[in-house]
Automatic annotation (TrEMBL):
This is Helicase-associated domain-containing protein. Residues 149-208 form the Helicase-associated domain. Residues 216-226 have a biased composition (Basic residues). It comes from Pseudarthrobacter equi. Residues 1-20, 208-239 are annotated as: Disordered. The lineage of its organism: Bacteria, Bacillati, Actinomycetota, Actinomycetes, Micrococcales.
Length: 239
């Protein structure tokens, strides 16, 4: 007894175990579901059913399809501004954009798309090469990791500031933006220390890298050599 086309499609789909790996791979490469269905001579709903199962097993499947379906990312004027702002934020604050301001939210979305394209194998070489200045930019940072990296960066920057012969950086009464940035960070460490919030590991590293960090900078600067050992009017502190 002859079968109609719909029966043939149903028979064909019954022979496939969902999700069909060939369909999944083709879809991952950016091929529309209608094209996959036409090539396999099955209903498009059948293909979508297979892909829905595959997407539950691999949540990145949809993103990979969208990224692959788009043309290779090209550098635009807006993209260049976003790139410059992301790099500037990292250089000045040692962190990646978050959601604290509308502009940072826009930058975070832009950076997420760069990660998405990179993961799908279609990165923009120009963007990727510039972003490689930021360690692990391809991996979305957690707030804890971001804060820890920024703390390490600031400690190194203050140590480098002192190594060039400067006094401890001031957090106010200075027109030097670099000194103010480092001074605010160091002042925050003193506040945390007095409040008992400073972790012992951080205290140890501060003691080693920045002698006299608790006392701060005397009025008028140091007379003679800066202290080379930790001193404090209250003696050593511990959490």
């Amino acid at each position: 007894m002859p079968t109609n086309r719909a029966d043939g499609r149903r028979a064909s789909s019954l022979k496939r175990t969902a999700p069909d790996p060939e369909w999944v791979q083709t879809y991952r490469q950016g091929t529309p579901t209608s094209t996959i269905a036409a090539a396999a001579r099955v209903a498009e709903t059948t293909v979508r059913y297979h892909l829905a199962i595959a997407a539950r097993e691999d949540p990145r499947l949809r993103a990979a399809h969208r990224a692959a379906a788009r043309p290779a990312t090209r550098v635009t004027a807006a993209g260049r501004r976003n790139l410059d702002d992301v790099l500037a934020l990292y250089r000045t604050e040692g962190r990646l954009p978050t959601k604290r301001t509308p502009r940072e939210r826009a930058l975070a979305i832009w950076l997420a798309r760069r990660r998405e394209g990179d993961a799908a194998g279609i990165p923009s070489p120009d963007y990727a090469a510039a972003l490689d200045e930021i360690p692990n930019w391809r991996n979305p940072p957690t707030k804890q990791a971001d804060d820890a990296a920024r703390w390490d960066r600031r400690l190194d920057e203050v140590a480098a500031w002192l190594a060039t012969g400067n006094d401890l950086p001031r957090h106010q009464k200075t027109d030097d933006q670099e000194e103010r940035t480092l001074g605010v960070w160091l002042h925050t460490q003193r506040i945390d220390d007095r409040a008992g919030r400073l972790a012992e590991t951080k205290e140890t590293r501060l003691n080693e890298a920045i002698p006299g960090w608790r006392v701060g900078r005397p009025r008028g600067g140091y007379k003679g050599r800066r202290p080379t050992t930790l001193s404090s009017p209250d003696g050593p502190r511990r959490n």
